[in-house]
Description:
645 residues; alpha+beta
Amino acid sequence: MVKVKFPDGAVKEFEDGATVATVAQSISTSLAKKAVAGRYNGNLIDYNAPLDTDGEIEIVTKDSEDGLKVLWQTVSLLLGASMVDLYPEMKFGECSISEHGFFLDTDNAAGQIAETEFDKITQKMQEIVKSGAKVERLAVTEKEALALVDGDAYRMELVKEAVVSGKVILHKLGSFVDVSAGAYLEKVSSIKIFKLLSVAGAYWKGASSNPMLQRIYGTAFYKQKELDEELQRRQEARERDHRVIGNDLDLFFVDPKAGAGLPYWMPNGATIRRTIERYIIDKEVSRGYEHVYTPILANLDLYKQSGHWDHYREDMFPPMDMGDGELLELRPMNCPSHIQIYNHHIRSYRDLPLRIAELGMMHRYEKSGALTGLSRVREMTLNDGHTFVTPDQIEAEFKNTLQLMVSVYADFDISDYRFRLSYRDPKNTHKYFDDDEMWEKSQKMLKSAMDDLGLEYFEAEGEAAFYGPKLDVQTKTALGGEETLSTIQLDFLLPEKFDLHYIGADGEEHRPVMIHRGIVSTMERFTAYLTEMYKGAFPTWLSPKQVTIIPVKNDLHLSYCEELRARLTAANVRVSIDDRNEKMGYKVRQAQVTKIPYILVVGDQEVAAKQVAVRRYGEKKTVNVTKDEFVNEILADIASYSRTK
Protein backbone atom coordinates (compact mmCIF):
# COMPACT_ATOMS: atom_id res chain seq x y z
CA MET A 1 0.00 0.00 0.00
CA VAL A 2 1.06 3.62 -0.54
CA LYS A 3 0.08 6.52 1.69
CA VAL A 4 -1.11 9.60 -0.20
CA LYS A 5 -1.38 12.96 1.55
CA PHE A 6 -3.86 15.53 0.19
CA PRO A 7 -3.52 19.35 0.24
CA ASP A 8 -5.93 19.58 3.20
CA GLY A 9 -3.64 17.33 5.26
CA ALA A 10 -5.78 14.20 5.00
CA VAL A 11 -3.96 10.90 4.35
CA LYS A 12 -5.41 7.92 2.50
CA GLU A 13 -3.98 4.53 1.58
CA PHE A 14 -4.10 3.08 -1.94
CA GLU A 15 -2.87 -0.18 -3.36
CA ASP A 16 0.65 -0.11 -4.69
CA GLY A 17 0.56 0.90 -8.35
CA ALA A 18 -2.46 3.19 -8.00
CA THR A 19 -2.41 6.14 -10.39
CA VAL A 20 -3.39 9.82 -10.33
CA ALA A 21 -6.58 8.68 -12.07
CA THR A 22 -7.30 6.27 -9.21
CA VAL A 23 -6.89 9.03 -6.63
CA ALA A 24 -8.98 11.55 -8.60
CA GLN A 25 -11.78 9.01 -9.05
CA SER A 26 -11.76 8.28 -5.31
CA ILE A 27 -12.50 11.95 -4.66
CA SER A 28 -15.25 12.52 -7.22
CA THR A 29 -16.28 11.57 -10.75
CA SER A 30 -16.44 15.25 -11.78
CA LEU A 31 -12.86 15.83 -10.63
CA ALA A 32 -11.68 12.76 -12.53
CA LYS A 33 -13.26 14.16 -15.72
CA LYS A 34 -11.47 17.52 -15.34
CA ALA A 35 -8.11 16.04 -14.28
CA VAL A 36 -5.26 15.79 -16.80
CA ALA A 37 -2.25 14.98 -14.57
CA GLY A 38 -0.97 15.12 -11.02
CA ARG A 39 1.73 16.82 -9.04
CA TYR A 40 3.29 14.17 -6.79
CA ASN A 41 5.94 15.14 -4.27
CA GLY A 42 6.33 18.37 -6.23
CA ASN A 43 6.79 16.75 -9.66
CA LEU A 44 4.31 16.77 -12.53
CA ILE A 45 3.40 13.20 -13.50
CA ASP A 46 1.11 11.55 -16.03
CA TYR A 47 -2.53 10.90 -15.22
CA ASN A 48 -1.88 7.17 -15.39
CA ALA A 49 1.62 7.14 -13.90
CA PRO A 50 1.94 4.66 -11.00
CA LEU A 51 2.34 5.99 -7.47
CA ASP A 52 4.97 3.60 -6.16
CA THR A 53 6.07 5.55 -3.05
CA ASP A 54 4.33 7.44 -0.28
CA GLY A 55 3.84 11.10 -1.11
CA GLU A 56 1.84 14.30 -1.33
CA ILE A 57 -0.52 14.79 -4.26
CA GLU A 58 -2.30 17.62 -6.06
CA ILE A 59 -4.74 16.80 -8.83
CA VAL A 60 -4.00 18.91 -11.92
CA THR A 61 -7.05 20.07 -13.89
CA LYS A 62 -7.38 21.74 -17.29
CA ASP A 63 -8.18 25.14 -15.81
CA SER A 64 -4.94 25.35 -13.82
CA GLU A 65 -1.51 26.69 -14.74
CA ASP A 66 -0.09 23.17 -14.52
CA GLY A 67 -2.92 21.89 -16.72
CA LEU A 68 -1.82 24.32 -19.42
CA LYS A 69 1.78 23.14 -19.10
CA VAL A 70 0.65 19.54 -19.60
CA LEU A 71 -1.18 20.57 -22.77
CA TRP A 72 1.86 22.45 -24.10
CA GLN A 73 4.17 19.53 -23.37
CA THR A 74 1.83 17.17 -25.21
CA VAL A 75 1.51 19.44 -28.25
CA SER A 76 5.32 19.68 -28.44
CA LEU A 77 5.29 15.86 -28.65
CA LEU A 78 2.58 16.04 -31.31
CA LEU A 79 4.73 18.48 -33.29
CA GLY A 80 7.66 16.06 -33.10
CA ALA A 81 5.48 13.18 -34.31
CA SER A 82 4.36 15.18 -37.33
CA MET A 83 7.92 16.26 -38.15
CA VAL A 84 9.17 12.65 -38.11
CA ASP A 85 6.61 11.77 -40.78
CA LEU A 86 7.25 14.86 -42.93
CA TYR A 87 11.06 15.06 -42.58
CA PRO A 88 12.46 11.54 -42.03
CA GLU A 89 16.10 12.72 -41.88
CA MET A 90 15.48 15.33 -39.21
CA LYS A 91 17.26 15.19 -35.83
CA PHE A 92 15.69 16.55 -32.65
CA GLY A 93 16.99 18.42 -29.63
CA GLU A 94 14.86 19.70 -26.76
CA CYS A 95 11.09 19.21 -26.90
CA SER A 96 9.65 21.32 -24.10
CA ILE A 97 7.61 24.30 -22.94
CA SER A 98 8.37 28.02 -22.76
CA GLU A 99 6.73 30.85 -20.81
CA HIS A 100 3.77 31.12 -23.17
CA GLY A 101 3.73 27.88 -25.14
CA PHE A 102 5.94 25.08 -26.42
CA PHE A 103 8.96 24.59 -28.66
CA LEU A 104 10.85 21.89 -30.51
CA ASP A 105 14.53 22.10 -31.51
CA THR A 106 15.37 20.53 -34.87
CA ASP A 107 18.39 19.94 -37.07
CA ASN A 108 17.70 19.12 -40.71
CA ALA A 109 20.60 18.42 -43.06
CA ALA A 110 18.32 19.16 -46.02
CA GLY A 111 17.72 22.71 -44.80
CA GLN A 112 15.81 24.73 -42.26
CA ILE A 113 12.04 24.80 -41.96
CA ALA A 114 10.37 27.95 -43.31
CA GLU A 115 7.27 29.44 -41.70
CA THR A 116 5.54 28.93 -45.04
CA GLU A 117 5.61 25.19 -44.22
CA PHE A 118 3.55 25.68 -41.04
CA ASP A 119 0.27 24.96 -42.80
CA LYS A 120 1.59 21.60 -44.01
CA ILE A 121 2.92 20.72 -40.55
CA THR A 122 -0.32 21.83 -38.87
CA GLN A 123 -2.32 19.64 -41.24
CA LYS A 124 -0.18 16.62 -40.33
CA MET A 125 -0.63 17.38 -36.61
CA GLN A 126 -4.41 17.52 -37.08
CA GLU A 127 -4.33 14.17 -38.88
CA ILE A 128 -2.56 12.59 -35.92
CA VAL A 129 -5.12 14.15 -33.54
CA LYS A 130 -8.00 12.70 -35.58
CA SER A 131 -6.36 9.27 -35.67
CA GLY A 132 -6.96 8.90 -31.93
CA ALA A 133 -3.29 8.08 -31.26
CA LYS A 134 -2.27 7.67 -27.64
CA VAL A 135 0.85 8.87 -25.83
CA GLU A 136 2.83 5.91 -24.51
CA ARG A 137 4.83 6.22 -21.30
CA LEU A 138 7.88 3.92 -21.38
CA ALA A 139 10.18 3.04 -18.50
CA VAL A 140 13.14 1.29 -20.18
CA THR A 141 16.80 0.57 -19.67
CA GLU A 142 19.45 2.91 -21.04
CA LYS A 143 20.29 0.38 -23.75
CA GLU A 144 16.65 0.10 -24.81
CA ALA A 145 16.23 3.87 -24.82
CA LEU A 146 19.35 4.38 -26.95
CA ALA A 147 18.01 1.86 -29.43
CA LEU A 148 14.75 3.80 -29.74
CA VAL A 149 16.60 7.03 -30.65
CA ASP A 150 19.40 5.37 -32.61
CA GLY A 151 21.04 7.72 -35.08
CA ASP A 152 19.96 10.93 -33.37
CA ALA A 153 23.03 12.21 -31.51
CA TYR A 154 21.09 14.89 -29.65
CA ARG A 155 18.50 12.57 -28.15
CA MET A 156 21.12 9.92 -27.42
CA GLU A 157 22.89 12.53 -25.30
CA LEU A 158 19.61 13.33 -23.55
CA VAL A 159 19.03 9.64 -22.85
CA LYS A 160 22.42 9.27 -21.15
CA GLU A 161 21.64 12.28 -18.93
CA ALA A 162 18.18 10.97 -18.01
CA VAL A 163 19.19 7.61 -16.51
CA VAL A 164 17.88 7.24 -12.95
CA SER A 165 18.46 3.98 -11.10
CA GLY A 166 19.20 2.26 -14.41
CA LYS A 167 15.93 3.40 -15.99
CA VAL A 168 14.94 6.09 -18.48
CA ILE A 169 11.41 7.52 -18.76
CA LEU A 170 10.34 8.19 -22.35
CA HIS A 171 7.14 9.34 -23.98
CA LYS A 172 6.29 8.09 -27.45
CA LEU A 173 3.74 9.25 -30.00
CA GLY A 174 3.79 7.46 -33.31
CA SER A 175 7.45 7.20 -34.35
CA PHE A 176 8.59 10.14 -32.23
CA VAL A 177 10.23 9.58 -28.85
CA ASP A 178 10.74 12.36 -26.29
CA VAL A 179 13.23 11.90 -23.48
CA SER A 180 11.18 13.31 -20.62
CA ALA A 181 9.65 12.17 -17.36
CA GLY A 182 7.16 15.05 -17.35
CA ALA A 183 3.38 14.91 -17.67
CA TYR A 184 1.45 14.44 -20.93
CA LEU A 185 -2.16 14.07 -21.92
CA GLU A 186 -2.98 10.44 -22.50
CA LYS A 187 -4.97 11.04 -25.71
CA VAL A 188 -4.04 13.61 -28.34
CA SER A 189 -7.67 13.60 -29.51
CA SER A 190 -8.36 16.21 -26.80
CA ILE A 191 -5.97 18.64 -28.52
CA LYS A 192 -8.10 21.01 -30.57
CA ILE A 193 -6.70 24.53 -30.35
CA PHE A 194 -3.04 25.13 -31.20
CA LYS A 195 -0.96 27.32 -33.48
CA LEU A 196 2.63 27.28 -34.75
CA LEU A 197 4.07 30.75 -34.36
CA SER A 198 7.67 31.26 -35.43
CA VAL A 199 11.14 29.85 -35.95
CA ALA A 200 14.44 31.01 -34.48
CA GLY A 201 17.98 29.81 -33.91
CA ALA A 202 18.90 28.13 -30.63
CA TYR A 203 22.24 26.70 -29.58
CA TRP A 204 22.14 23.07 -28.45
CA LYS A 205 21.78 23.26 -24.65
CA GLY A 206 22.14 27.04 -24.84
CA ALA A 207 25.93 26.98 -25.28
CA SER A 208 27.40 29.05 -28.11
CA SER A 209 30.15 26.45 -28.53
CA ASN A 210 27.50 23.88 -29.53
CA PRO A 211 25.74 23.51 -32.92
CA MET A 212 23.01 25.99 -33.81
CA LEU A 213 19.62 24.26 -34.10
CA GLN A 214 16.32 25.62 -35.36
CA ARG A 215 13.66 26.18 -32.72
CA ILE A 216 10.01 26.02 -33.75
CA TYR A 217 7.67 27.87 -31.38
CA GLY A 218 3.96 27.36 -30.89
CA THR A 219 1.20 27.68 -28.35
CA ALA A 220 -2.03 25.86 -27.46
CA PHE A 221 -5.08 26.28 -25.23
CA TYR A 222 -8.18 24.40 -24.16
CA LYS A 223 -10.45 27.26 -25.31
CA GLN A 224 -10.41 29.34 -28.51
CA LYS A 225 -10.91 32.53 -26.50
CA GLU A 226 -7.65 31.92 -24.66
CA LEU A 227 -5.74 31.44 -27.91
CA ASP A 228 -7.26 34.64 -29.32
CA GLU A 229 -6.17 36.54 -26.20
CA GLU A 230 -2.65 35.11 -26.45
CA LEU A 231 -2.34 36.07 -30.12
CA GLN A 232 -3.52 39.57 -29.22
CA ARG A 233 -0.90 39.73 -26.45
CA ARG A 234 1.80 38.64 -28.90
CA GLN A 235 0.68 41.28 -31.40
CA GLU A 236 0.95 43.87 -28.66
CA ALA A 237 4.41 42.52 -27.83
CA ARG A 238 5.52 42.92 -31.44
CA GLU A 239 4.20 46.47 -31.51
CA ARG A 240 6.03 47.30 -28.27
CA ASP A 241 9.27 45.41 -29.00
CA HIS A 242 12.02 47.97 -28.40
CA ARG A 243 14.11 46.39 -31.15
CA VAL A 244 11.37 46.98 -33.74
CA ILE A 245 10.61 50.48 -32.46
CA GLY A 246 14.33 51.22 -32.22
CA ASN A 247 14.69 50.41 -35.90
CA ASP A 248 11.56 52.35 -36.93
CA LEU A 249 12.60 55.47 -34.99
CA ASP A 250 16.31 55.06 -35.77
CA LEU A 251 17.34 54.85 -32.11
CA PHE A 252 20.08 52.21 -32.15
CA PHE A 253 21.42 49.19 -33.97
CA VAL A 254 23.57 46.16 -33.23
CA ASP A 255 25.79 44.70 -35.93
CA PRO A 256 27.10 41.21 -35.07
CA LYS A 257 29.95 41.77 -37.53
CA ALA A 258 31.11 44.68 -35.42
CA GLY A 259 30.42 42.86 -32.16
CA ALA A 260 27.37 41.04 -30.78
CA GLY A 261 25.80 42.74 -27.79
CA LEU A 262 27.52 46.07 -28.50
CA PRO A 263 24.85 48.64 -29.44
CA TYR A 264 25.48 51.72 -31.55
CA TRP A 265 23.38 54.69 -30.44
CA MET A 266 22.07 56.73 -33.35
CA PRO A 267 21.43 60.49 -32.84
CA ASN A 268 17.78 59.92 -31.86
CA GLY A 269 18.63 57.20 -29.33
CA ALA A 270 21.64 59.17 -28.07
CA THR A 271 19.35 62.15 -27.42
CA ILE A 272 17.03 60.04 -25.26
CA ARG A 273 19.99 58.57 -23.40
CA ARG A 274 21.63 61.97 -22.89
CA THR A 275 18.35 63.38 -21.51
CA ILE A 276 18.09 60.50 -19.02
CA GLU A 277 21.73 60.91 -17.99
CA ARG A 278 21.43 64.66 -17.41
CA TYR A 279 18.20 64.13 -15.50
CA ILE A 280 19.53 61.47 -13.14
CA ILE A 281 22.81 63.28 -12.48
CA ASP A 282 20.97 66.49 -11.53
CA LYS A 283 18.53 64.49 -9.41
CA GLU A 284 21.32 62.71 -7.54
CA VAL A 285 23.39 65.85 -7.02
CA SER A 286 20.32 67.49 -5.47
CA ARG A 287 20.23 64.56 -3.01
CA GLY A 288 23.83 64.97 -1.91
CA TYR A 289 25.60 62.59 -4.28
CA GLU A 290 29.05 63.44 -5.61
CA HIS A 291 29.57 62.26 -9.18
CA VAL A 292 32.90 60.77 -10.22
CA TYR A 293 34.58 59.13 -13.21
CA THR A 294 36.59 55.94 -12.77
CA PRO A 295 38.43 53.69 -15.29
CA ILE A 296 36.65 50.83 -17.03
CA LEU A 297 39.85 48.77 -16.57
CA ALA A 298 41.46 47.68 -13.33
CA ASN A 299 44.12 45.27 -12.14
CA LEU A 300 42.66 41.77 -11.81
CA ASP A 301 43.83 41.70 -8.19
CA LEU A 302 41.19 44.31 -7.36
CA TYR A 303 38.41 41.91 -8.41
CA LYS A 304 40.08 39.02 -6.62
CA GLN A 305 40.09 41.10 -3.45
CA SER A 306 36.44 42.10 -3.90
CA GLY A 307 35.39 38.50 -4.51
CA HIS A 308 34.01 39.14 -7.99
CA TRP A 309 36.64 36.86 -9.53
CA ASP A 310 35.61 33.97 -7.27
CA HIS A 311 31.85 34.46 -7.47
CA TYR A 312 31.34 36.09 -10.87
CA ARG A 313 34.16 34.80 -13.06
CA GLU A 314 31.93 33.15 -15.67
CA ASP A 315 30.32 36.53 -16.42
CA MET A 316 33.64 38.39 -16.73
CA PHE A 317 35.77 38.84 -19.84
CA PRO A 318 39.18 37.12 -19.90
CA PRO A 319 41.97 39.20 -18.34
CA MET A 320 44.33 41.09 -20.65
CA ASP A 321 48.00 40.24 -20.14
CA MET A 322 50.01 43.45 -20.45
CA GLY A 323 53.24 41.46 -20.89
CA ASP A 324 54.93 42.72 -17.71
CA GLY A 325 53.09 40.55 -15.24
CA GLU A 326 50.12 42.91 -14.93
CA LEU A 327 46.67 41.53 -15.75
CA LEU A 328 43.97 44.09 -16.55
CA GLU A 329 40.28 43.29 -16.40
CA LEU A 330 37.27 44.99 -17.97
CA ARG A 331 35.20 45.80 -14.92
CA PRO A 332 31.97 43.86 -14.40
CA MET A 333 30.95 46.08 -11.44
CA ASN A 334 31.74 49.61 -10.29
CA CYS A 335 31.84 49.04 -6.53
CA PRO A 336 35.60 48.27 -6.24
CA SER A 337 36.29 51.51 -8.15
CA HIS A 338 34.21 53.56 -5.72
CA ILE A 339 35.95 51.87 -2.81
CA GLN A 340 39.21 53.28 -4.23
CA ILE A 341 37.61 56.75 -4.16
CA TYR A 342 36.66 56.24 -0.51
CA ASN A 343 40.09 54.96 0.42
CA HIS A 344 41.96 57.83 -1.25
CA HIS A 345 41.48 59.99 1.87
CA ILE A 346 41.26 59.36 5.58
CA ARG A 347 37.57 59.59 6.40
CA SER A 348 35.95 60.99 9.53
CA TYR A 349 32.50 60.25 10.90
CA ARG A 350 31.75 63.87 9.94
CA ASP A 351 32.23 62.88 6.27
CA LEU A 352 29.52 60.24 6.45
CA PRO A 353 27.23 59.47 4.82
CA LEU A 354 29.52 59.78 1.78
CA ARG A 355 27.45 59.38 -1.39
CA ILE A 356 29.40 58.52 -4.55
CA ALA A 357 27.66 58.13 -7.91
CA GLU A 358 28.72 57.49 -11.48
CA LEU A 359 27.34 56.58 -14.85
CA GLY A 360 29.80 53.73 -14.90
CA MET A 361 30.51 51.67 -17.97
CA MET A 362 30.79 47.93 -17.31
CA HIS A 363 31.31 44.78 -19.38
CA ARG A 364 29.67 41.38 -18.89
CA TYR A 365 30.48 38.21 -20.80
CA GLU A 366 26.93 37.39 -21.85
CA LYS A 367 26.41 34.30 -24.01
CA SER A 368 25.51 35.06 -27.62
CA GLY A 369 22.15 33.34 -27.34
CA ALA A 370 21.13 35.56 -24.41
CA LEU A 371 21.79 38.90 -26.12
CA THR A 372 18.64 40.93 -26.87
CA GLY A 373 18.64 44.44 -28.33
CA LEU A 374 19.40 46.92 -25.54
CA SER A 375 17.99 44.80 -22.73
CA ARG A 376 20.80 42.19 -22.71
CA VAL A 377 24.16 43.53 -23.88
CA ARG A 378 27.87 43.01 -23.25
CA GLU A 379 28.71 46.67 -22.69
CA MET A 380 26.46 48.75 -20.44
CA THR A 381 26.47 51.97 -18.45
CA LEU A 382 24.98 51.64 -14.98
CA ASN A 383 23.37 54.45 -13.02
CA ASP A 384 25.43 53.36 -10.04
CA GLY A 385 25.84 54.74 -6.56
CA HIS A 386 27.52 53.74 -3.32
CA THR A 387 26.99 55.30 0.06
CA PHE A 388 29.36 54.76 2.97
CA VAL A 389 27.57 55.13 6.31
CA THR A 390 27.99 54.54 10.00
CA PRO A 391 25.83 51.68 11.30
CA ASP A 392 23.37 54.08 12.93
CA GLN A 393 22.87 55.93 9.61
CA ILE A 394 21.64 52.85 7.70
CA GLU A 395 17.90 53.38 8.14
CA ALA A 396 17.98 57.11 7.37
CA GLU A 397 20.08 56.56 4.24
CA PHE A 398 17.90 53.66 3.18
CA LYS A 399 14.86 55.95 3.48
CA ASN A 400 16.63 58.73 1.57
CA THR A 401 17.45 56.34 -1.26
CA LEU A 402 13.88 55.04 -1.41
CA GLN A 403 12.52 58.58 -1.57
CA LEU A 404 14.86 59.36 -4.46
CA MET A 405 13.75 56.20 -6.23
CA VAL A 406 10.03 56.90 -5.83
CA SER A 407 10.53 60.48 -7.04
CA VAL A 408 12.30 59.27 -10.18
CA TYR A 409 9.56 56.74 -10.87
CA ALA A 410 6.93 59.48 -10.66
CA ASP A 411 8.80 61.64 -13.19
CA PHE A 412 8.94 58.75 -15.67
CA ASP A 413 5.31 57.81 -14.96
CA ILE A 414 6.26 54.37 -13.62
CA SER A 415 3.59 53.24 -11.17
CA ASP A 416 3.25 49.44 -11.41
CA TYR A 417 5.97 48.07 -9.15
CA ARG A 418 6.46 46.15 -5.91
CA PHE A 419 9.29 45.63 -3.42
CA ARG A 420 11.20 42.37 -3.02
CA LEU A 421 13.59 41.60 -0.19
CA SER A 422 16.21 39.32 -1.73
CA TYR A 423 18.03 36.94 0.59
CA ARG A 424 20.79 34.40 0.07
CA ASP A 425 20.23 30.67 -0.30
CA PRO A 426 22.13 29.42 2.79
CA LYS A 427 22.78 26.08 1.05
CA ASN A 428 24.62 27.72 -1.85
CA THR A 429 28.03 28.45 -0.34
CA HIS A 430 29.59 28.68 -3.81
CA LYS A 431 27.47 31.62 -4.97
CA TYR A 432 27.23 33.42 -1.63
CA PHE A 433 30.02 34.46 0.70
CA ASP A 434 30.15 31.96 3.56
CA ASP A 435 29.58 34.04 6.70
CA ASP A 436 26.35 33.12 8.50
CA GLU A 437 26.66 35.87 11.12
CA MET A 438 27.08 38.59 8.49
CA TRP A 439 24.10 37.35 6.48
CA GLU A 440 21.81 37.05 9.49
CA LYS A 441 22.75 40.52 10.71
CA SER A 442 22.35 42.27 7.36
CA GLN A 443 19.11 40.48 6.38
CA LYS A 444 17.48 41.34 9.72
CA MET A 445 18.60 44.96 9.40
CA LEU A 446 17.13 45.32 5.91
CA LYS A 447 13.85 43.70 6.93
CA SER A 448 13.66 45.90 10.03
CA ALA A 449 14.18 49.04 7.94
CA MET A 450 11.34 48.08 5.60
CA ASP A 451 9.06 47.30 8.54
CA ASP A 452 9.89 50.61 10.22
CA LEU A 453 9.06 52.44 6.99
CA GLY A 454 5.73 50.60 6.81
CA LEU A 455 6.30 49.41 3.24
CA GLU A 456 4.77 46.23 1.83
CA TYR A 457 7.21 43.70 0.37
CA PHE A 458 7.65 40.04 -0.41
CA GLU A 459 10.69 37.89 0.32
CA ALA A 460 12.73 35.77 -2.10
CA GLU A 461 15.49 33.37 -1.12
CA GLY A 462 18.41 32.97 -3.52
CA GLU A 463 18.11 36.42 -5.16
CA ALA A 464 20.71 38.30 -3.10
CA ALA A 465 24.03 39.64 -4.37
CA PHE A 466 26.97 37.45 -3.38
CA TYR A 467 28.07 39.98 -0.75
CA GLY A 468 24.75 40.89 0.86
CA PRO A 469 20.94 41.05 0.84
CA LYS A 470 19.08 43.66 -1.18
CA LEU A 471 15.81 45.39 -1.81
CA ASP A 472 14.77 44.94 -5.45
CA VAL A 473 12.08 46.99 -7.10
CA GLN A 474 10.17 44.66 -9.40
CA THR A 475 8.45 46.59 -12.17
CA LYS A 476 5.81 45.34 -14.56
CA THR A 477 6.98 45.49 -18.14
CA ALA A 478 4.72 46.75 -20.91
CA LEU A 479 4.30 43.12 -22.02
CA GLY A 480 3.10 41.85 -18.65
CA GLY A 481 6.38 40.40 -17.42
CA GLU A 482 8.38 41.51 -14.41
CA GLU A 483 11.99 42.67 -14.11
CA THR A 484 14.26 44.26 -11.55
CA LEU A 485 14.61 47.93 -12.40
CA SER A 486 16.14 49.35 -9.21
CA THR A 487 18.01 47.90 -6.27
CA ILE A 488 19.36 48.86 -2.85
CA GLN A 489 21.94 46.48 -1.39
CA LEU A 490 23.29 46.35 2.12
CA ASP A 491 26.95 45.32 2.31
CA PHE A 492 29.02 44.52 5.40
CA LEU A 493 31.42 42.30 3.44
CA LEU A 494 33.33 44.58 1.06
CA PRO A 495 34.22 47.12 3.77
CA GLU A 496 35.72 44.16 5.63
CA LYS A 497 37.56 42.78 2.61
CA PHE A 498 39.04 46.19 1.75
CA ASP A 499 39.66 47.08 5.41
CA LEU A 500 37.71 50.35 5.20
CA HIS A 501 37.69 52.69 8.19
CA TYR A 502 36.49 56.03 9.40
CA ILE A 503 37.60 57.92 12.51
CA GLY A 504 34.75 58.08 14.97
CA ALA A 505 33.87 60.78 17.51
CA ASP A 506 35.92 58.77 20.01
CA GLY A 507 39.05 59.14 17.86
CA GLU A 508 39.12 55.40 17.13
CA GLU A 509 38.85 53.55 13.82
CA HIS A 510 35.44 52.08 12.93
CA ARG A 511 34.13 50.03 10.03
CA PRO A 512 31.63 51.73 7.69
CA VAL A 513 28.71 49.96 6.07
CA MET A 514 28.39 50.18 2.29
CA ILE A 515 25.05 50.64 0.53
CA HIS A 516 24.95 49.84 -3.19
CA ARG A 517 22.08 51.31 -5.21
CA GLY A 518 20.98 51.64 -8.81
CA ILE A 519 17.97 53.83 -9.48
CA VAL A 520 17.28 53.46 -13.21
CA SER A 521 19.34 50.36 -14.00
CA THR A 522 21.64 50.64 -17.01
CA MET A 523 21.11 53.25 -19.70
CA GLU A 524 20.62 50.40 -22.16
CA ARG A 525 18.03 48.45 -20.21
CA PHE A 526 16.18 51.54 -19.01
CA THR A 527 15.91 52.93 -22.54
CA ALA A 528 14.59 49.56 -23.73
CA TYR A 529 12.09 49.51 -20.84
CA LEU A 530 10.85 53.03 -21.56
CA THR A 531 10.65 52.41 -25.32
CA GLU A 532 8.30 49.49 -24.72
CA MET A 533 6.36 51.24 -21.96
CA TYR A 534 5.72 54.34 -24.09
CA LYS A 535 5.41 52.26 -27.28
CA GLY A 536 7.88 54.66 -28.90
CA ALA A 537 5.64 57.69 -28.20
CA PHE A 538 8.05 59.30 -25.73
CA PRO A 539 6.77 62.17 -23.59
CA THR A 540 7.85 65.56 -24.84
CA TRP A 541 10.73 66.00 -22.38
CA LEU A 542 12.28 62.69 -23.49
CA SER A 543 11.38 62.69 -27.18
CA PRO A 544 14.42 62.95 -29.48
CA LYS A 545 12.49 65.32 -31.73
CA GLN A 546 9.99 67.47 -29.86
CA VAL A 547 8.62 69.69 -32.63
CA THR A 548 8.48 69.55 -36.41
CA ILE A 549 7.45 72.64 -38.36
CA ILE A 550 5.75 72.11 -41.73
CA PRO A 551 5.43 75.05 -44.15
CA VAL A 552 2.45 74.83 -46.50
CA LYS A 553 4.55 76.46 -49.23
CA ASN A 554 8.29 76.89 -48.86
CA ASP A 555 8.52 80.07 -50.92
CA LEU A 556 5.83 81.83 -48.89
CA HIS A 557 6.12 80.40 -45.40
CA LEU A 558 9.67 79.07 -44.86
CA SER A 559 11.04 82.37 -43.56
CA TYR A 560 8.51 82.44 -40.70
CA CYS A 561 9.24 78.73 -39.99
CA GLU A 562 12.91 79.56 -39.56
CA GLU A 563 11.98 82.38 -37.19
CA LEU A 564 9.95 79.90 -35.14
CA ARG A 565 12.79 77.37 -35.11
CA ALA A 566 15.27 79.99 -33.89
CA ARG A 567 12.93 80.97 -31.04
CA LEU A 568 12.37 77.36 -29.97
CA THR A 569 16.03 76.37 -30.34
CA ALA A 570 17.02 79.30 -28.12
CA ALA A 571 14.67 77.83 -25.49
CA ASN A 572 16.44 74.42 -25.79
CA VAL A 573 13.53 72.79 -27.61
CA ARG A 574 14.51 70.10 -30.13
CA VAL A 575 12.93 71.29 -33.36
CA SER A 576 13.27 70.72 -37.10
CA ILE A 577 11.65 72.05 -40.28
CA ASP A 578 10.28 69.62 -42.85
CA ASP A 579 10.86 71.60 -46.04
CA ARG A 580 10.95 68.60 -48.37
CA ASN A 581 9.23 68.91 -51.70
CA GLU A 582 6.34 66.68 -50.61
CA LYS A 583 2.63 67.21 -50.06
CA MET A 584 1.74 68.62 -46.66
CA GLY A 585 -0.55 65.66 -45.85
CA TYR A 586 2.34 63.24 -46.43
CA LYS A 587 4.65 65.23 -44.16
CA VAL A 588 2.03 65.34 -41.39
CA ARG A 589 1.57 61.56 -41.61
CA GLN A 590 5.33 61.04 -41.46
CA ALA A 591 5.56 63.15 -38.33
CA GLN A 592 2.79 61.04 -36.77
CA VAL A 593 4.52 57.79 -37.77
CA THR A 594 7.76 58.95 -36.13
CA LYS A 595 5.73 59.97 -33.05
CA ILE A 596 6.90 63.58 -32.80
CA PRO A 597 4.93 65.22 -29.92
CA TYR A 598 4.12 68.50 -31.68
CA ILE A 599 3.43 69.28 -35.34
CA LEU A 600 3.27 72.95 -36.29
CA VAL A 601 1.69 73.77 -39.65
CA VAL A 602 2.38 77.22 -41.06
CA GLY A 603 0.33 78.80 -43.87
CA ASP A 604 -0.85 82.25 -44.87
CA GLN A 605 -3.08 82.71 -41.83
CA GLU A 606 -0.32 81.75 -39.37
CA VAL A 607 2.24 84.04 -40.99
CA ALA A 608 -0.16 86.97 -41.02
CA ALA A 609 -1.29 86.54 -37.41
CA LYS A 610 2.10 85.38 -36.03
CA GLN A 611 0.44 82.13 -34.99
CA VAL A 612 1.01 78.40 -35.38
CA ALA A 613 -1.48 75.60 -36.09
CA VAL A 614 -0.64 73.01 -33.40
CA ARG A 615 -1.40 69.33 -33.71
CA ARG A 616 -0.29 67.00 -30.91
CA TYR A 617 0.72 63.39 -31.50
CA GLY A 618 -2.26 61.04 -31.45
CA GLU A 619 -4.82 63.82 -31.90
CA LYS A 620 -6.74 64.75 -35.03
CA LYS A 621 -7.72 68.28 -34.13
CA THR A 622 -5.54 71.30 -34.88
CA VAL A 623 -5.55 74.37 -32.61
CA ASN A 624 -4.31 77.82 -33.59
CA VAL A 625 -2.35 79.71 -30.93
CA THR A 626 0.10 82.58 -30.93
CA LYS A 627 3.79 81.91 -31.19
CA ASP A 628 4.36 82.99 -27.56
CA GLU A 629 1.49 80.83 -26.31
CA PHE A 630 2.96 77.76 -27.95
CA VAL A 631 6.46 78.42 -26.58
CA ASN A 632 5.00 78.74 -23.08
CA GLU A 633 2.94 75.56 -23.57
CA ILE A 634 5.80 73.35 -24.66
CA LEU A 635 8.20 74.69 -22.03
CA ALA A 636 5.62 73.95 -19.34
CA ASP A 637 5.16 70.47 -20.84
CA ILE A 638 8.89 69.79 -20.67
CA ALA A 639 9.34 71.29 -17.20
CA SER A 640 6.55 69.08 -15.77
CA TYR A 641 8.09 65.92 -17.31
CA SER A 642 5.01 65.82 -19.56
CA ARG A 643 2.78 64.83 -16.66
CA THR A 644 -0.86 65.73 -17.14
CA LYS A 645 -1.90 65.19 -13.52
